[in-house]
Amino acid sequence: MRHFIAIAVLLGLSLTAFGKDIRLPPLKDWNGFFPFSGDAAQQEAAASLWLLK
After folding, report:
1. Is it the case that residue 30 has pLDDT exceeding 80?
2. Taking the mean position of all CA atoms in its chain, how far away is CA 21?
């Protein structure tokens, strides 16, 4: 029974540490990764509206 409790505690602590690592901010700047976000998307939308005139 003591082994079961010890394993459960260790698993809980490792999952807590893993969850803390997941919440760290990403190292990569994702703003430039998606083609339809940011300034490029606004410029493309403005160009599309200009073509529709």
Report:
1. no
2. 12
C-alpha 48/C-alpha 43 separation (Å) is 9
27: containing domain: 1-52
Q: 43: closest CA among 51, 30, 10, 7?
A: 51
Both structure tokens of 25: 């901010």
By C-alpha distance, which of 30, 29, 9, 13 is closest to 21? 13
The total of structural domains in the chain comes to 1
Output the six-digit token pair for 42: 């606004």
Question: Does 3 score more than 80 pLDDT?
Answer: yes
